[in-house]
Amino acid sequence: MADTIFSKIIRGEIPCHKVYEDAHVFAFLDIGPLSRGHTLVIPKEAAATLDQLSDESSSALGRVLPRLCRAVMKASGADAYNVLQNNGALAHQAVFHVHFHIIPKFEGQPESGLGIRWLAGKLDAAEGKQLAAQIAAAIG
Ligand code: 5GP
To answer: Of the candidates 47, 78, 83, 85, which lies 20 to 30 Å from 104 by C-alpha distance?
Structure first.
């Protein structure tokens, strides 16, 4: 996979405000924060999207993500937070190296943090049954 800016950050070729590093995971402050404490958590493996990530990197990420959420909440004094993970340009991914955003939310600051447009539909029971079976069958 082609190098992204995040691979350069992991290698120390581009500066960042690092908050965590282990054998598989790296975390640093987002350069364009949506709120105070906005942090990016990335695997060292250079996979473009989450579905392409190895089990080893996935488990390392999953293991540390809650711990990093707790640290961001504690250090920023946030009241709540979103974890966001975009895959593909259509889904607003700009850097094609897997990353989880931890985005704090603060009481009384509705303009800060993640804004979500959530146009909920209604799941049809028959279609849901078929779709769930298809997804279950597709799990590798
Ligand atoms: P995406 O839209 O791909 O989910 O988000 C990419 C994120 O990476 C953005 O929030 C953007 O601000 C952040 N970002 C892009 N380039 C850099 C950089 O060079 N340094 C840091 N710290 N963050 C970056």
So the answer is: 47
Domains and CATH numbers, the chain: 5-138 (3.30.428.10)
Provide the β-strand partners of residue 84.
101
Q: Is the CB of 31 under 6 A from ligand 1?
A: yes
Task: Compute the distance from residue 95 Cα to the ligand 1 centre, in Å.
Answer: 7
Q: State pLDDT tens for residues 49-72.
A: 999 999 999 999 999 999 999 999
Phi, psi for residue 108 in degrees, rounded to 5? 80, 5
Closest CA to 102 of 140, 74, 136: 74
Between CA 124 and CA 133 the distance in angstroms is: 14
Share of the chain above pLDDT 90, in %: 97
